Amino acid sequence: MGDSGTILTSSDGTSWDNGTSGTTNHLYGVTYGNGTFMIVGDSGTIITSSDGTTWTSRTSGTSYGLLGVTYGNNTFVSVGFSGTILTSSDGTTWTSRTSGTTIHLQGVSYGNGTFVTVGLTGTVLTSSDGTSWDNRTSGTSENLQVVSYGNGLFVSVGDSGTKLTSPDGTTWTSRTSGRSKVGVTYGNSTFVAVGSSGNIVRSTDNGSTWDNATSPTANRLNGVNFGNDTFVAVGNSGNIVRSTDNGSSWDNATSPTANDLHGVGF
């Protein structure tokens, strides 16, 4: 999904169809949980779908832009501008939570009984229930763009090639730097991160070291996800790339849009 309410769907990551979102707001975050696809975006936009085809607008109770969303512990959590955090048990009724910060929160993930959200100037917050949040020391002042969980580890990436790992969301370790990254995911024992100029890197040792993969695009890639034994990354100008060999080699998929795409879910 992406700019101007763009939604695309695919059963294989290769052939993509335009969907109807019912909004022209930019869409930034997507997740799946409890039988529901959830997408969030500008001006507090939240839309839900049981099948990825028919979408229903929900009332978020905020006009702030929402940038990330995740599901865990029977709870949806969305984060965004000015420290906004919202929670919902059903994806329909949302409650605003106190984050303790006015800094933009850009990504959120759940793992090992903990919600973790990251944001500008190295901000990291954690919560066991999505309601009460604690500020953590990340060890960086760089903007953190996104966080993901896999194989017992949280991985966050951001500006200036920042990569951080943590087993619990509280204690963070800096890893080898490279180009700026704005997307990261985990699948098949591999972390994959994407970013500017089509850059794709992968780690097979739980985020300790990262190797460059050959990318088929020079466009910025904004999001990446794993499903059905396939990594799919999306980016500017409607670019979609995919890998079926654990993130080693990538090819372009045909996209039906030229709008910037910001995220992908499975």
List the helices and strands and how they pair.
Layout: E1 7-9, E2 17-19, E3 27-33, E4 36-41, E5 46-49, E6 56-58, E7 66-72, E8 75-80, E9 85-88, E10 95-97, E11 105-111, E12 114-119, E13 124-127, E14 134-136, E15 144-150, E16 153-158, E17 163-166, E18 173-174, E19 181-187, E20 190-195, E21 200-203, E22 211-213, E23 221-227, E24 230-235, E25 240-243, E26 251-253
Antiparallel strand pairs: 1-2, 3-4, 4-5, 5-6, 7-8, 8-9, 9-10, 11-12, 12-13, 13-14, 15-16, 16-17, 17-18, 19-20, 20-21, 21-22, 23-24, 24-25, 25-26
Can you walk me through this structure?
Helices cover 0% and strands 47% of the residues. It has 266 residues and is mostly beta strands. It has a single domain (3-253), classed as Neuraminidase (6 Propeller). The protein has a 4-stranded antiparallel β-sheet with strand order 3-4-5-6, with no helix packed on it. A 4-stranded antiparallel β-sheet has the order 7-8-9-10, with no helix packed on it. The relative contact order is 0.13.
